[in-house]
Amino acid sequence: MASISIRNLVKRYGNFTVIPDLNLEIADHEFVVFVGPSGCGKSTLLRIIAGLEPISSGDLYIGDKRVNGVQPAQRDIAMVFQDYALYPHMKVYDNMSFALELRGTPKAEIDARVKRAAALLHIESYLERKPKELSGGQRQRVAMGRAIVRNPKAFLFDEPLSNLDAKLRGQVRAEIKALSQELKTTMVFVTHDQIEAMTMADRIVVLQSGTIQQYDTPETIYERPTNQFVAGFIGSPAMNFFPVEWRQERAILSQAGRMVPLDGETAARLSRAGNAVLGIRPEHFAVASDSADSIAIDVKLVEPLGSDTLIHFDLAGGSAIARVDPALRPKVGDRINLYPQPGKTHLFDASNGQVLW
Amino acid sequence: MSDAANTDRWIRWLNTVQLVLAGLLIMAPTVWMVLSSFKPSFEVTAYPPTLVFSPTLENYVELTRTTPFLSYALNSLIVTLGSTALGLLFGIPAAFAVSWTRISWPAILTLAARMAPGTLFLLPWYVMFRQIGMIGSYTALILSHAVITLPIVIWVLLPSFDGIPRSVFEAAQVDGCSVTRILWRIALPLVASGVAVSAILAFVFSWNYFLFALVLSNGDTKTLIAAAFNFIGEGSTQWGALMAAATLIALPPLVLAALVQRWLVSGLTLGAVKG
User: Where residue B267 falls among pLDDT bands split at 50, 70, 90?
Assistant: First the structure.
């Protein structure tokens, strides 16, 4: 068990800088998820922690030990790869015992540890099989088992669920979460799926172009995103954005020229800024019974999800989505009056995307 | 019959013709060689060639009577096995290193050496081996034949190593393997059929290589293929004995290829390791 500390880390490939200058502290026992779009540097960062990529400059500590240049084997970390990376020629048992065997662990202890991990992951009956005889989900479990038997200081997961089907993904996600609570080990998990990030993490690192956009708890990132990128990336469907301006003591949607009803606190912030980008999550629209203090929209598309219904509409020169009660039974072409729930709107600086407090 | 069915029939027919022609082209000299080795001397060069004849072993008797055939065969075996082993010993780690580092120039260099005419090497080698008193030694022959076997091993194994997902090697690194151990414990078992194929091809090419043995061997270390050259004289050529020698020389590679042909094809097409 150990903390991970990254200080002024820079990673370059030739003249191309992937990570310009990154600082990050991961506490002992913490489950941290790196999330971001493709090419944001999240996997590179994980591979740097693993020792599979050298650092261009800066420092990396695992526990108290500075591990720049230390071989992966000496870092006492375990990693689960996206494609599982099982050894195809070895049986499941041998896949799991390999690292312990290399360390000269006594056979009896290897056996005990492999069987304990196998029991934990419900893979006892596969131990004598080769990886090619297993399904994707079973291979995924073996990959986790291989990591668990090591009893490492930290677990690193590189998009381990992306090759599983949706149902299995949800199941394994819950299992990893339960495992993290049972093992009480530092875990770093990379994903591009914000649902995985939200459901599993103690804290989320949102990355863009190798820069941390926000590092906080899932709740804070959802409720108080620090910039427009984070606000748009976390949440599904994504947050709606509308350019707004303060005119004649009212908030006006810039391109539509229509008034948007805002709560007093948000209106005050907009009045100070003059203009901004208004962010409203689809689930934070409410349906009004009449057109007073609301925005009338025409339903363009309806997506019933069962638990709720998504309605797509055009507003202020762009498309937007609202999540409404399925009992409303909206139909394409219906006119509906919507208003943002008080206290649930976000304002971002129109020039740099930073949140306006 | 539809146009598509007609086209299919034509394609099948053309394929058959093509295969028969290719088979004839490849097999005709071999069949000629084998048949000639069983013909009486005067019939070997008869034109038109006789297809019906009384088979005789006189060429084989002549071959074993006039030459220490078994001793030459043993020389061939020593040189071939030695150079194949040398090729594998250096070729396996070289191919792995090229695949691991993705620095391809060393592999290209060995290929260029293989493509260069053998005569290019002869003079420097002759001078070099003479200087160190190794002309006529097995060592000189084995080292020279490594020029043939090493590129084969490297180039057959390179796609096999490339086909192993990089993450498997990285998992081994995280598990505690050094690069050498990754090669030995992870990569090598996964390319076993590729290693077998490269060994067979190296064996065949080295076994059949003529030029180096002709110059660098002596009476005690002469290989079969170089010895067979003795039957070609300035005034006359002993075609019957030459055909008998050629048949016997061709036998080991043919038997080897026939025994492992299924493996040979799968090994040559080995591109990816399925998990």
Answer: low
Residue B204's nearest CA partner among B261, B257, B164, B158 is B257
Q: Which residues are CB-neighbours of A169 under 8 A, at least 6 positions away?
A: A161, A196
Please say whether the beta carbons of B135 and B129 come within 8 A: yes
Strand residues in chain B grouped as ranges (E): none
- In this prediction, residue B117 carries a pLDDT of 85
CB contact under 8 A, A88 and B171: no
Residues of B in contact with A82 (CB under 8 A): 167
Residue range A283-342, pLDDT digits in tens: 999 998 887 788 899 999 999 999 999 999 999 888 999 999 999 888 999 999 999 999
Is B272 an 8 Å CB contact of chain A? no
CB A94 within 8 A of CB A79: no
Q: Does A91 touch chain B (CB under 8 A)?
A: no
pLDDT at A166 > cutoff 50: yes
Q: Tell me the β-bridge partners of A302.
A: A311
Task: Kindly provide the ipTM of the predicted complex, given to two decimals.
Answer: 0.84
CA dihedral A290→A295→A300→A304, nearest 10 degrees, is: -70
Whether the CB-CB separation of A311 and A324 falls below 8 Å is answered with yes
Interchain CB distance below 8 Å, B167 and A88: no
DSSP letters along A256-279, please?
TTEE----HHHHHHHHHHSEEEEE
Does B133 reach chain A within 8 Å, measured CB to CB? Answer: no
Tell me the chain B residues in contact with residue A77 when contact means C-beta distances shorter than 8 Å: 174
Query: Rounded CA gap, A210 and A205, in Å?
Result: 11
